[in-house]
Design brief:
Two copies of one chain form a homodimer. Chain A is an alpha/beta fold. Chain A folds into two domains: about 240 residues, 3-Layer(aba) Sandwich (Aspartate Aminotransferase, domain 2); about 100 residues, Aspartate Aminotransferase, domain 1 (Alpha-Beta Complex). Chain A is built from nine helices and 14 strands. In chain A, the strands form four sheets. In chain A, strands 2-10-9-8-5-3-4 form a seven-stranded mixed beta sheet. A three-stranded antiparallel beta sheet of chain A has the order 11-12-14, with helices on one face. Chain A has a two-stranded parallel ribbon with strand order 1-13. In chain A, strand 3, helix 4 and strand 4 form a beta-alpha-beta unit. In chain A, helix 1 crosses helix 6, helix 3 crosses helix 4 and helix 7 runs parallel beside helix 9. The longest helix of chain A has 20 residues. Chain A is globular and about 60 Å long.
Amino acid sequence: MAMATSPHSLLLQNPTPTFLKNPKLPFTAVPMTSTRISPTTTAKPMSIKCAATTTPIQDLRPNPPESQDRVFNFAAGPANLPENVLKKAQSELYNWRGSGMSVMEMSHRGKEFSSIIQKAESDLRTLLNIPQEYSVLFLQGGATTQFAAIPLNLCKPDDKVDYLVTGSWGDKAFKEAQKYSKPKVIWSGKSEKYTKIPAFDALEQTPDAKYLHICANETIHGVEFKTYPTPKNGLLIADMSSNFCSKPVDVSKFGIIYAGAQKNVGPSGVTIVIIRKDLIGNAQEVTPVMLDYKIHDDNNSLYNTPPCYGIYMCGLVFEDLLEQGGLAGIEKKNKKKAELLYNAIDGSNGFYRCPVEKSVRSLMNVPFTLEKSELEAEFIKEAAKEKMVQLKGHRSVGGMRASIYNAMPLAGVEKLVAFMKDFQAKYA
Amino acid sequence: MAMATSPHSLLLQNPTPTFLKNPKLPFTAVPMTSTRISPTTTAKPMSIKCAATTTPIQDLRPNPPESQDRVFNFAAGPANLPENVLKKAQSELYNWRGSGMSVMEMSHRGKEFSSIIQKAESDLRTLLNIPQEYSVLFLQGGATTQFAAIPLNLCKPDDKVDYLVTGSWGDKAFKEAQKYSKPKVIWSGKSEKYTKIPAFDALEQTPDAKYLHICANETIHGVEFKTYPTPKNGLLIADMSSNFCSKPVDVSKFGIIYAGAQKNVGPSGVTIVIIRKDLIGNAQEVTPVMLDYKIHDDNNSLYNTPPCYGIYMCGLVFEDLLEQGGLAGIEKKNKKKAELLYNAIDGSNGFYRCPVEKSVRSLMNVPFTLEKSELEAEFIKEAAKEKMVQLKGHRSVGGMRASIYNAMPLAGVEKLVAFMKDFQAKYA
């Protein structure tokens, strides 16, 4: 019998494993000349006849999702997504569940995408236990668009509103609100480099302020609200972009919660707004239609074409969070990761320092500096060699920042901590 | 020798094809007891020893991208994407080109994403031959946000502007502009059900209008500008959402061209704005920061987090268009497809009717009705059985609509035309 000239040819007989039935694979199945193997017969010697083929071996699958190719990505957003979510998205990118099209190709008004957006909303409602009196909107434009949308929708131009500013993002929200309302910064952490949150009873809230605005987690400065102030007039607004779905939240305390997805729950391009329904419907006349909550609410986020693929990705993340048991369990995991890292910093005898007041340190974003600041570039460089990337601090702050969102595995934090210890041993 | 108890177990010897090295596959490689097969030796009888395993067969690859699973998707947007673009996106979703992360996880300010957005812009400039005096912006918020952004950026509230309304989208743009300027509809096709474009010399343009706005292709009504009017004051603004990159355009004729990506060039969530630089920088005070062209231009679309994955997808589409030889060739293909379909309609003895004036019929969106309108539901249903979907006309218009963007293959139009002939034969 002729022998194989290509080592990539094989002769196999029934039953043929599924993968071998694929005609695209680089070998040809050639019938065997001897008896079928069956579980009950004794082995007989057989000849293996190989058919030559000129088809070169190609790995026709997409790059196998080998975890060893992944880096530990400490970016602040866009950020890590859960590996299983990415694999699922990859597997169904070309043809979503037998529909014959990608999610990216679906009509946003068709039945397939309707099921996707409805499930995403439903799962989010479950995760956050969102009361029925709240609408959930999936919008474009980032949290930065909401900085304008909120005063535009809730205020007349002369209305007073209070901003409690604990970092750069609260400050940006305040500045944008100046165009559409009369905002006041009732407290700012700026003079202390945004390392604190004040005691709430010490706050001097404006008596007739329409709302009190906070940024629940300041991404750049690593300052996170653990409890929330009670607004004098009952309306608390929170930017939760960088800690959304990282822990349970009592939505009923808020008038509006908004979040860019691209920290904890999806890719960039989707902004989620959870808004109490009675607050909808009084937008100022200069409000662009795309910033008018009533338009979006009346149309279930389908007034125009929503960011469909981003919403789909958020939906996969919500499912994954539910499969992990929901936000109470997620919070535990996040606390464990954060504790590991903060302990490493605090236990370094000053080699590493985190300036944030301990009681308000973020579980999501951990800024720190090196006592020997001249070593910071080396730290970044050596960490990157160890496949830990995006550790550089925000350009407005310098130093280092490790963002450890939901999807950062414990292993990533452990590796970082081990690296930090080694680095210290090397350079102390 | 023990025989296999599971038909899914095989014994294979070196060289082991790549896929068999994967430990996740459901069988175990067990060393053969006989001589290696080599290309030069004669076949020797050998025993095949199979190791039993209980791992069930699973197809571990993502669903193979078989074209026969695809439908012909005539949706108006989101819409078809080129198959090779989808396959490429799928293959690199989990790990983009060795970076160890997905595009969805990249910092928008990192070197990987910088290369992506810069290449996308560069390729678009090549495709459309965009002069250097123009900026290219990748924004969120859809064309609908641009309806507000354009008058906000180009006008004072009392400035007059002209709108030439040839369909629903031009009408929406006009209505939004009323908030921020003094717009006038200088011509409307509404009384003739949006089936025409007027002769340009008959237009009564406002002498001191800041700009003249057109919708270059009306998605709902299938009316497309083949040539462009000359604005009295030199500033022509065009919404090209639904024919962007379907044919060459002389960008220098326009002050601004804007387009939602989700017809011809990408998924939803990205809006491309091509704007002459001298028009940037005079936004009204009430302009939300996210609608201010200067903010975006100064920051190369990275003022805040852009819609990264959508921009990446657009980049893949631009590469694909360049590989096809650019927009002149694309236009030829589109003309051929459109001609096939319009001829089928016009040659049906009135069984099918397209109401649009022949000289302005869109190459992208083909609306038509059945003489026997009671058959329309059946038409949709039977077409869907043949895997041609999303043929229903826009809800404001009824009837049928076939959107045949760049990525609709000729085969899809041929199939539709054949189906239409059969359907007519069946029901005439």
